[in-house]
Write a structure and sequence with these properties.
By secondary structure, this protein is α/β, with parallel strands linked by helices. The chain has one domain: CBS-domain, CATH 3.10.580.10. The chain contains seven helices and eight strands; from the N terminus they run ββαββααββααββαα. The protein has a four-stranded mixed sheet. The chain has a four-stranded mixed sheet with strand order 2-3-4-5. Helix 1 links the parallel strand 2 and strand 3. The longest helix has 11 residues. The relative contact order is 0.17.
Length: about 200
């Protein structure tokens, strides 16, 4: 039988502060550093997910509360069915689908506007382990995407991470517009100079 011990309790000292994540106030990352440093690792941080029958209003509130711009759409067993982004919620698609379904836009089900799993492209974890942050930024720019999911193939395939252009930009200390390719060499040079 294992025996446990009681730990000593202490009084809270005056002026104690609440801890912050290590990245807060740290030096910005650089484009040539390992990509994994900029990935949200879903093996350590719970994914922000929603069920396909949830309403767009609930999805939007979840995004605001979690401070994210993308939700994974999962079934009750945790299987990935698709994803929904803030763009999906705010575009013309929801208005058209709401008219077709005869419901208010906010009451429309997420499944009507989500990107289905069959249309999702992912990065392989084995490739990410040997990639730089700059490689990921280039991939997001070339694909015109704000997010990239990372799939780990060992055993049953599972999404193990997410790259977000906004999060990478925060970590680099620059703004990254993943949906627009650089228009000039000056834009590329500015991004590389910031790293």
């Amino acid at each position: 039988m294992t025996s446990f011990r009681t730990l000593r309790l202490h009084s809270l000292p005056a002026h104690a502060r609440v801890g912050e994540p290590e990245s807060a106030g740290a030096e910005p990352l650089a484009m040539d550093q390992p990509a994994a440093l900029a990935m949200t690792d879903l093996r350590r941080v719970p994914a922000v997910a929603i069920q396909p029958d949830a309403t767009l209003e609930v999805a939007q509130q979840r995004m605001v509360h979690a401070r994210v711009r993308m939700l994974l759409v999962t079934d009750s067993a945790g299987e990935l069915l698709g994803l929904v982004t803030a763009r999906d919620l705010l575009g013309e698609g929801p208005i058209r689908a709401a008219i077709d379904d005869g419901v208010a836009r906010d009451q429309l089900a997420v499944r009507r506007v989500m990107v289905p799993g069959s249309r999702i492209q992912v990065l392989d974890w084995a490739d990410v382990q040997h990639a730089s942050i700059g490689d990921v930024v280039q991939t997001l720019r070339e694909s015109g995407r704000q997010h990239a999911l990372v799939l780990e193939q060992g055993g049953a395939p599972q999404v193990c991470g997410i790259f977000s252009a906004t999060q990478i930009g925060r970590l680099l200390g620059v703004r990254i517009e993943a949906s627009d390719k650089p228009q000039s060499f000056a834009e590329v040079e500015h991004l590389l100079a910031a790293s």
